[in-house]
Design a protein that fits this description.
By secondary structure, the chain is α+β, with helices and mostly antiparallel strands. The chain has a domain of about 120 residues: Glutathione S-transferase Yfyf (Class Pi), Chain A, domain 2 (Up-down Bundle). The protein contains 10 helices and 4 strands; from the N terminus they run E-H-E-H-H-E-E-H-H-H-H-H-H-H. A 4-stranded mixed sheet has the order 2-1-3-4.
Length: about 230
């Protein structure tokens, strides 16, 4: 039975972290809103009762419906062997995946520091201040953390020579930060993160996906947005 991935159809966003792992593992899935539209997504989510996802992305597999990016990836990793297969290490990987979730939330808060319900243009002054703090302090804080974790097993991947969902997520994180803050990222040097980024692109499934029209470009409706005024002093 194929997986159904529900996420907004026109942005990479948080759904892309799930897509990349599925593509790397060469697992069949249906990208439901890409096929049926945003209205179908809202209708499907609205029709669910009880303990349901708060927001996309969410994954449907038979009678199971689960939300939250890290939660989805932990489930898929266990089923398709792109975790460690050992509880202690898998918990560490999930911990790192949740760290990725944290920085992605902070990325979104850069251009929506006052409220997610307001347009960027309505909170530009606050966004400028948030971007300066994020560029100067939060990016190095998080990337130092991931760089140190990658040293543990010698790379190129978090577990050494086999990729995990953390590696595909770090790839997407670095791609997104480069898009959003090209000037700031050019000043930073993280050789192990660059190594893992290159290694992920060499995974057969990822290489094919990146070359396809299914890989969405970053844009100013998604999480990683390029506003030149937020990437300068």
């Amino acid at each position: 039975m194929s997986y159904q991935l529900w996420y907004w159809p026109n942005i990479p966003g948080r759904g892309e972290f799930v897509r990349l792992a599925l593509e790397a593992a060469e697992v069949d899935y249906e990208d439901m809103a890409r096929e049926h539209g945003a209205e179908a997504l809202m209708e499907d989510l609205g029709s669910r009762r009880g303990i349901r996802p708060f927001a996309p992305p969410y994954l449907v597999h038979g009678d199971l419906c689960i939300g939250q990016t890290a939660h989805i990836l932990a489930y898929l990793a266990d089923r398709h062997d792109f975790g460690a297969g050992e509880l202690e290490i898998d918990l560490q990987l999930i911990q790192l995946q949740l760290d990725v979730t944290d920085i992605v939330a902070e990325v979104h808060a850069v251009h929506h520091p006052v409220s997610a319900s307001l347009y960027y243009q309505d909170q530009m002054d606050a966004a400028y201040e948030a971007a300066q703090n994020f560029r100067d302090h939060r990016i190095p804080r998080f990337l130092d953390h991931f760089e140190l974790a990658l040293e543990e097993n010698g790379g190129p991947f978090m577990l050494g020579d086999r990729w995990t969902h953390v590696d595909t997520s770090l790839f997407q994180l670095m791609e997104g930060l480069d898009y959003m803050f090209p000037n700031r990222m050019a000043e930073l040097d993280y050789p192990r993160l660059e190594l893992v980024r290159g290694a992920v692109t060499d995974i057969d499934g990822v290489e094919a996906y990146l070359a396809s029209d299914r890989r969405l470009e970053f844009n100013e409706d998604g999480i990683f947005r390029y506003y030149p005024e937020l990437d300068s002093e």
